[in-house]
Amino acid sequence: MLDQKLKPDKTHGSHRQSVANLPPSPIADGITNEHRFSTPQSKNVDATAIEQELKAAIEGEVRFDDGSRALYATDASNYRQIPIGVVLPKTEEDIIQTVAICKKYSAPVLMRGGGTSLAGQCCNVAVVMDCSKYYNRILRMSKEEKTVTIQTGIVLDDMRHTTEREIGLTFGPDPATHNHCTLGGML
To answer: pLDDT digits over 8-65, tens only?
Structure first.
């Protein structure tokens, strides 16, 4: 169990502490918080600057608070990596801007689906993008071509029920998490 005291962050007036600024504290066999909750790619990332620039540039939600970061720190596995922040894009342009801003600050980016992975694929010390709230529509269906064009955040069952009802086609893979996994996360 970690026993870290948070000090007020003068920038935000809260008890927020950046992932990169956790004090080294032995956990076991020389592993420290610094190693556990950061990566070489995230170590010197300016989370505050990224947050401010994202809030000014995108329509979607920008969440860099401790609660949101904790919610996105895990998936259906036992892995836990606290993200730098979370973005819920509303548009394709939001996704493009988020990637561009993260590139500007050399911040890693991770696209996340429904969080149903069992091996930690959607956990990382990165700016996590979750498209399931807003970017989740069917854009085009073609019975003749047997194709569907979607946004990445659509839940498998939502797409499947619509295509079965409207064009008589279904999607073959049937994972146990079909009612809450996203198509983007499956790819």
So the answer is: 444 444 444 444 544 444 444 454 445 456 777 777 899 999 999 999 999 999 999 9
Length of the chain: 187
Residue 17's Cα: distance from chain center in Å? 20
Provide φ and ψ at 102, rounded to 5°: -65, -40
Q: How far apart are CA 181 and CA 107, in angstroms?
A: 26
User: What does 27-54 look like in DSSP terms, one character per residue?
Assistant: EETTEEHHHHS--TTTTT--HHHHHHHH
SS3 (DSSP) at 6: coil
Contact 44, 38 (CB under 8 A): no
H helix or E strand, kind and range, residue 87: strand 85-88
pTM: 0.78
First to last CA, the chain: 35
Other Cβ atoms closer than 10 A to 132: 21
Query: Which alpha helices (H) appear in the chain, and where do they start and end?
Result: 33-36, 47-57, 66-71, 92-104, 156-167, 183-186
CA distance 180 to 168: 22
